[in-house]
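Entry 14. Structure prediction run on the chain below.
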Amino acid sequence: MNFASDNAAPVAPEILEAIVRVNEGFALAYGNDDWTRALERRMSELFEREVATFLVATGTAANAIAVAHCCQPWNSVLCHAQAHLATDEAGAPEFYGGGLKLVELPGDNAKIAPETLRTALARGRGVPHSVIPGALSLSQSTEVGTIYRPEDVRTLTEIAHEHGLAVHMDGARFANAVASLGCTPAEITWKAGVDVLSFGATKNGAMEAEAVVFFDPKRADGMASRRKRAGQLISKQRFAAAQFDAWLRDNLWLRLARRANAAAARLAEKLGSVGLQPVWPVEANEIFVMIPRETDRRLREAGAAYADWPREFLPAGILSSPDGELIRLVTSFATTDRDIESFIRVAHEI
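Output returned:
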């Protein structure tokens, strides 16, 4: 009954096999190997245009150096108040951005509305007194498991570009969003106006494999040095490239994401049958529910693993009693029907 995080899931067997296959002989270091070169070509094929791809080890690094690359130190990055960029990166964007400022915006379902963005861009006293917006960052899927549709992204990117902002997409769970939408990766990124993507594989079956993808290679000028300076140039990069190669081959990445999404849908349906309704729409692989504190205690005693979530983010109209807990349940490609049934059985008994 482990619903703590998709980071807690095992590595997909196909990816482990790929690592073993490339673990023979010698290869040039720092990305000068055949696997990395092949992956760079594959990324361009996947996104239907020439892209510049930079492999890194963590999602925090991918997000932080991506937005830093889009901004000057006196710029700000606009993001949702619940975005991982704002709540879970320990100041990494500001650190790598030389002091750039994150401006947190409100929005239902952890999504930024067009009018909210327009209002934020109209604030401030301008040069030289205010930080100048340099980038907009969108999470896909969001921190509460909701999804921006292509038309939603397009509307926001048009506003951002009108004001000279670059658009970054935090795609730690990008695979879950694409699998849910049934669109192509291109349709939800550069065709909708996204300039740079943090493309995460770790939460969806890989092991320390993340990428920063620029949809205009010219925008990536200097990124090789920035990645090295950030300590993210992987010496034995063939092992990261091999993971991405296996992950993308025959659409494994989407098959794994569909499994995780389907497990979340099943779990949400069964939670409803015992009176636990999700707080936000279940559109990817995350579920948030309010449960009584005693129920929380007994579920944990029974071996269930999940995360507490700040109640300050509860949407309007959701009651928050003093003896209640807001919890997050995350499914993965490795979540089984047995995990779900066991959790529901315990919850039902309580």
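The radius of gyration is 20 Å.
Filed with the rest of this week's runs.
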